[in-house]
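dude i think i finally got it to work??
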Amino acid sequence: MRFMEISRKHRLFSTLAAIAMAAAMAVSCTAQSAQDPNKPNPALETVTLKAGDVELIAEVADTEMERNRGLMFRKTLADGKGMLFVFESDQKVSFWMKNTSLPLSLGFLGKDGSILQILDLTPFSLDPRPSERSVRYAIEVPQGWFARAGLNIGDRFEIPPLK
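look at this
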């Protein structure tokens, strides 16, 4: 009887250990996927940006890793959606299209949300596309979205409080 009791406890312990190990591996794989520079950013927090009557739902890339990966490896990006790149301070920045198959437009914004510059980006291009002046934010959207939305240089997005 004592042997069966130990055996059952051993099986229970082994089962619990296997479940714990599987859970740890799943968390580890998820963390590695989030950090793997050869995979898309996991779904990021979104905010709704408004410029007059125009709304844009934007994923927020506010860490260096998220900004560096941006929209790389993404297959689609719907009109009215984009990615907001948040920088810690005003600075001149440069974007490229490494590993990015989507044709995009890029808007550089000042700290007040004003559009300072709009560029069209070529898929997979490694040519740097710099901001002409210091910016606090950048927005990537499907190519031509700014024009379709009726937004131009000088228009201003309301940037909600970010974490």
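The beta strands are 46-51, 54-61, 81-91, 94-95, 104-109, 115-121, 129-130, 135-142.
im so relieved honestly
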